[in-house]
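FW: tagging you since you asked about this chain on Friday. Here's the raw sequence from the shared folder, copied in full. Didn't touch anything.
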Amino acid sequence: MEHTLRELQLCELQLVKAVLSICERHQLTVFMMGGTFLGAVRHKGFIPWDDDVDLGMSREDYETFLRVAPQELPQGYILRHFAKDPDMPYYPAQVVDPSFEILDTSAQIAKTRSAWIDLFPLDGMPKGKMGCFFHKYRLLYLRMMLKFSQFSQVVAVNLAHRPLHERILIAVGKHLHLESRLDTNKRMHLIDRCLKKYPYETASQVVNFMGAYKFREMFPKKIYDSLSEYPFEDLQLLAPSDYDTVLRQMY
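HL: got it, structure written out here
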């Protein structure tokens, strides 16, 4: 059955409500990120052409959610995370409704996907400039190798307006065929360990490194210490009070 974009958005909204319910029961703080946050500010809901939802949590709350959600999600919904699901091709966790399917044509190999929302952990960065510099490039290297390990499955080769360095890496990936020589699950665990190296609680800067914007989504932690409610469709969702700083840096 072919679904409209609006039907997909409404399905995702139900997934958001399921996540909110679990977070309320366990006193976890979850907030909007990326295009979802932009949509709340500009449209009081979904950006009209947006097809996904991005939510974030501190690393500690994220790990708690991963632990409790499998037992508490409504019947039919599934939590996907690479550590528990070897077929999961993405690092961020997803809450999925398998009853609602769409065709994803963004990568080299088109595939059918279930409706989903993304959950991102926010992680700490080292405080010194030199430590921050080396940590950034270690993460960028690990992410690059992860993408090469699953190139045909998840890299959005058809995405327009990529910067030059990304277009070069995509050309390399197309010609070298590194997937057969790189273990994706091992790469996931390497980047997971590196992201957890600096605790969120003691950091002065935090980052959603595994989002689309990498270090453009690195902010002083105080940004996330002050959250406000924003209307999003028929919900009130949290996001940083200083929306202007966050969205200007990202977009």
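FW: Residues 106 and 158 are 6 Å apart (CA to CA).
HL: agreed, and The beta strands are 31-32, 54-58, 78-80, 93-104, 111-124, 205-207, 218-220, 227-232, 235-240.
FW: great, closing this out.
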